[in-house]
Amino acid sequence: MPKRKLDPLPAAAFQILLALAGGDLHGYAIMRQVEEQTAGKVRLGPGTLYSSIQALLEERLIQEVDPGAPPELSDAPRERRRSYRLTSAGMKVARTEAQRLAEILRVARARRILRGDYV
Amino acid sequence: MCEKIFACLFRLYPAHFRRQYGAEAMGLLRDRLRDERGSRRRLRLWFDLLVDFAAGLPQAYRNRYASPVPQPASGLPTFRVLDQEPLRPGSVVLGSVFALATLSAFVFVMNHASAYHPFARLNGLANAAHSAGQTTPDVEQVAEKLDKQIRAASALESCGFEKLELHPGNIGYVKLNSFPDPARCGEMVEAVMERLNSTDAVIFDLRDNRGGYPQTVRMIADYLFDRPVPWYNPRAESQQQSVTRSPVPGSQLAIKPMFILTSSRTFSAAEHFTYDLKMLKRATIVGETTSGASHGTSPPPEGTKPIWEGSGVEPDVKVKAADALQTAERLAHRELRK
After folding, report:
1. CATH class for domain B159-337?
2. A5-34: per-residue pLDDT in tens?
3. Closest Cβ–Cβ partner in A28, A58, A78 for B28
4. What is the H or E stretch that residue B287 is in?
5. Can you give the residue ranges of every domain in chain B?
6. Quick check: helix, strand or coil at residue B260?
7. Based on CB atoms within 10 Å of each CB, which residue in A16, A43, A61, A64 is the most buried?
8. Which positions ≥6 away from A66 have C-beta within 8 Å?
9. Which chain B residue has the Cα nearest residue A54?
């Protein structure tokens, strides 16, 4: 079995998977979605974003989808934007990662290292 | 302006990546420039971009950019054939970095190895005097120099010169472990004596010298006088061999203080050198009484028995052989201060 590039799953890749779990998005929207779901803490730059997307594509965790007709709101002819969709394999990887983190969280809670009102 | 800088930085990414995502990345940047206005947000944007570069670049080079491996339809195993894949840009970059690092290390070693080589130290001194400004020789010169030094060092050693060093106070130090065959090493002896020419005093270390050719003994002595002097040679075959061929043209060693280090292991021709220079008051002998066993095992031919046979040569300054070098250096410094 060849070693997988996304094993362990990098934080950026996981965030992208989570962002796509809510529906198909293009690059910029993924970046905004990630920013939103991390309360502004993580803002993916173009380098990280697209190289992570490329890695996820190569591992078949996401796939490109035809964006269909571009929205007619732009003033100039804009370049075609590719949108991405989570594949079932990607969903599985995201779930596994989430479960792994949940397991860690469970241990952390049992050790009482979390203060305040974490659930 | 911002876009131009970004476009320049973006060139660092692999070509495949640029082709595939270049337009979108620029679009994303434009969108962010449009959405994020105000100096603080712009500052944060640039900070983001720089961090992104550090993080995104290695990742971008790790990707394959080839079409994904087709998944096996059934349970049949598939094989990836590596030679059908193009060389990944990441490998090329890594290879170049390694090659550059190795080359730099090699050049560094070649540049600095000479500092630890005794012959080079004396050599370097002479060179430095000639070309004080030339401090950064190019690779070729360094390679040539190193090559010469290695060859010179092994040639030196094969001629009995274990060490040839410049000690503090511009004192030349020669550790000579034999007096070599003049036919084979004559030129080497001449070269060594020429190198010593620029020093202010010379210490001949004969503590481990097992003897050798009397011709070489006299050959070295030739340099140490400014006129022909009678030279005692117990095995001289002709009158010609009983006088030094001094002065040697160009040699300035005749007026410089000489020191000879001896030990109880100093044998034969080395005792000859020591004895003669002591008698001629041309050198200060420092160390132990020499062995006095001029011929080793075989008895000397009739009538050629040297004076020091059996008794050895007494030093002028009697110290333990191990301390002889230190003592001689101290004496030389005192002499040179006069």
Report:
1. alpha beta
2. 677 888 899 999 999 999 999 888 999 999
3. A28
4. strand B283-287
5. 1-63, 159-337
6. strand
7. A16
8. A83
9. B63
> Testing the interface with B: which of A16, A41, A51 to mutate, by most B Cβ within 10 A?
A51
B22: closest CA of chain A, how far (Å):
9
Cβ distance of B56 and A43 shorter than 8 Å: no
In whole angstroms, what is the distance from residue A81 CA to residue A70 CA? 8
In the structure, what pLDDT confidence band is assigned to residue B103 with cuts at 50, 70 and 90? very high
Contacts of A52 in chain B (CB under 8 A): 59
Which CATH number goes with the domain that contains A30?
1.10.10.10
Chain B CB contacts of A59 below 8 Å: 68
DSSP states of A9-60: PPHHHHHHHHHHHTS-EEHHHHHHHHHHHTTTS----HHHHHHHHHHHHHTT
Q: Which residue of A has its CA nearest to B19?
A: A50
Q: Out of B97-106, B138-147, B254-263, which region has the weakest mean confidence (pLDDT)?
A: B138-147
What is the number of other CB atoms lying within 10 angstroms of the CB of residue B242?
A: 13
> Of residues A117 and B57, which shows the higher confidence score?
B57
Give residue-wise pLDDT tens across range B197-243: 889 999 999 999 988 888 889 889 999 998 888 888 877 666 666 88
Cβ neighbors of A118 (< 8 A, separation 6 or more) are A109
Check residue B259 and give its pLDDT.
94
CA B95/CA B99 separation, integer angstroms: 6
Among chain A residues, CA nearest to B25: A46
In chain B, residues with a C-beta closer than 8 Å to the C-beta of A48 are 52, 55-56, 59
Ranges B96-105, B140-149, B191-200: which has the least confidence: B140-149
Q: Please check whether residue A45 lies inside any domain of the structure.
A: yes
The whole-angstrom separation of Cα B159 and Cα B174 is 12
For chain A, what is the domain count? 1
Confidence of residue B97 (pLDDT cuts 50, 70, 90): very high
Inside any domain, residue A20: yes
Most confident of B142-146, B147-151, B160-164, B283-287: B283-287
A-B CB pairs within 8 A amount to 89
Q: Which residue has the tokens 């050599």?
A: B123
Q: Determine phi and psi for B241, rounding to 5 degrees.
A: -80, -5
